[in-house]
Amino acid sequence: SDLCANGSAKGKRVFIRADLNVPQDDAGNITEDTRVRASVPAIEMALKAGAAVMVTSHLGRPTEGEFKSADSLAPVAKRLGELLGRDVPLVANWVDGVTVEPGQVVLLENCRVNKGEKKNNDELARKLGALCDIFVHDAFGTSHRAEGTTYGIAQYAPVACAGPLLAAEIDAITKALANPKRPLAAIVAGSKVSTKLTILKSLANNVDQLIVGGGIANTFMLAAGLNIGKSLAEHDLVDEAKAVIDIMKARGAEVPIPTDVVTAKTFAADAVATVKKATDVADDDMILDIGPETAAKLAAQLKQAGTIVWNGPVGVFEFAAFENGTKTIAHAIAESSAFSIAGGGDTLAAIAKYGIEKQVGYISTGGGAFLEVLEGKTLPAFEILTKRAAG
Ligand code: 3PG
Predict the structure, then answer these.
(1) For 139, phi and psi rounded to 5 degrees?
(2) What is the pLDDT of residues 188-244, one digit of tens each?
(3) Contacts of 308 (CB under 8 A, 6+ apart)
(4) Using one digit for the tens of pLDDT, what is the confidence trace for 270-293?
(5) Number of domains within the chain
(6) CB of 35 sitting under 6 A from ligand 1
(7) For residue 135, which of 22, 160, 278, 300 is within the disulfide window of CB 3.0 to 4.6 Å?
(8) Which residues, including other chains, have CB under 8 Å from residue 381's CB and lie 6 or more apart?
């Protein structure tokens, strides 16, 4: 099919910005390749159309102008080659020109090593724009960054559009948040309210149930007047948590506060786990998971939901004694007929642990980008494409 729906890409120079920022071990082996696999459809589409294909991504956060071997996309070129079933040459120092023939694909070395990339320097942006006939932005995971290869090139390329992955991510998020089948339930969990306060406030104006977990739930328990002992919480954000509860109440929606919890005296895998009523937490207790009664109630709500947004495990699921809450939530999402969308590193780890990949409606490749969308922010890299499309 045609990229950017502007006629054939045959013989055209297509520049694809992907997010191939994948984790590696010390030996440089890719430990999790979801993003590489997710980049394949756009590349195959361009190759099939007979385009000369250039692909780039950042890897990590290198110092501009100082390329080190650990910054190299070489392991990604190898993996991409395996997935595409063809050799993917890696090209260094490519800003001033790239040699690539129609029907070929090359991977352009870590774009964040180029001077001016991060601040979207205009001179660099013009050069990037001149490298191609068509720019395809397919890096959802980096679309919250206005950098040279995500924003600048989109300003100057003759044609610029979203690739299939970016489009799918935006579609899934729009389906979940802008036009959801109700009830819409969101699970926002994780250790800190502070990192997710904007998300909580933004979702409080939209969702029917705002399920909190982890350290975030502890702060909400404080807001509800409960003792949480020595659990992780942010005492200075209790008023903010109250404000979120009030927004929800005013809309006739709710933030379910745990009625039981799993506690321990120490934070350790072998700590003794004790289930307690939420009103019985002692001063030396640490809450490490929601209790079975709470988990069952939440699971029942999730099964009734029309749409579910999931970010964050509700307990310390890495420890077997404190995984039940997260496991119950994961299975409830899997069994629910709701459209579900999940994102964030810990959430993806939980999805993998409980083997529910196939039952989640959409798993986002975005980390920070996914969170910014939940915050209700406009993604700059998407915004420029919209502007270009409007002419
Ligand atoms: C990510 O891993 O979330 C993206 O690749 C963005 O990376 P960054 O936070 O370094 O911009």
Answers:
(1) -95, 75
(2) 998 888 889 899 999 999 999 999 999 999 999 999 999 999 999 999 999 999 999
(3) 176, 184, 185, 186, 187, 302, 333, 336, 338, 339, 340, 341
(4) 999 999 999 999 999 999 999 999
(5) 2
(6) no
(7) 160
(8) 137, 139, 142, 143, 144, 145, 146, 150, 151, 154
Question: Exposure of 102 by Cβ count < 10 A (0-12 exposed, 13-18 middle, 19+ buried)?
Answer: middle
Instruction: Indicate whether 253 and 335 sit together in one domain.
Output: yes
| Domain final position from 162, 180, 197 | 162
Which residue puts its alpha carbon closest to atom 3 of ligand 1?
Answer: 367
Do 209 and 185 sit in the same domain of this protein? yes
For residue 211, give the nearest of 336, 91, 123 by alpha carbon: 336
What is the distance in A from the centroid of ligand 1 to the CA of 111?
A: 13
Task: Please check whether residues 26 and 81 belong to one and the same domain.
Answer: yes
**Interface predicted TM-score of the whole assembly (ipTM), two decimals:** 0.99
State the DSSP code for 19: -
Check if 35 is active-site: yes
Residue 379 lies in a domain: no
- Measured distance CA(137)–CA(383) in Å, rounded: 11
Q: Do 57 and 195 sit in the same domain of this protein?
A: no
Q: Beta 159-162 vs 105-108: how paired, if at all?
A: unpaired
Nearest-10 crossing angle of helices 193-204, 214-223: 70
Show the domain range for 257: 170-374
Q: Answer yes or no: do 292 and 204 share one domain.
A: yes
Per residue in 14-30, pLDDT (tens digit) is 999 999 999 999 888 99
389 found inside a domain = no
Give the mutation target among 24, 30, 58 for probing the ligand 1 site: most ligand atoms within 8 A of CB: 58
Q: 176 and 157 in one domain? A: no
Return the pLDDT at 1: 45
d(CA 312, CA 351): 11
Catalytic residue among 12, 35, 79, 127, which? 35
The answer to whether position 387 is within a domain reads no
Residue 111 forms part of a structural domain: yes
Question: In the block, which residue shows the tokens 């004694």?
Answer: 321
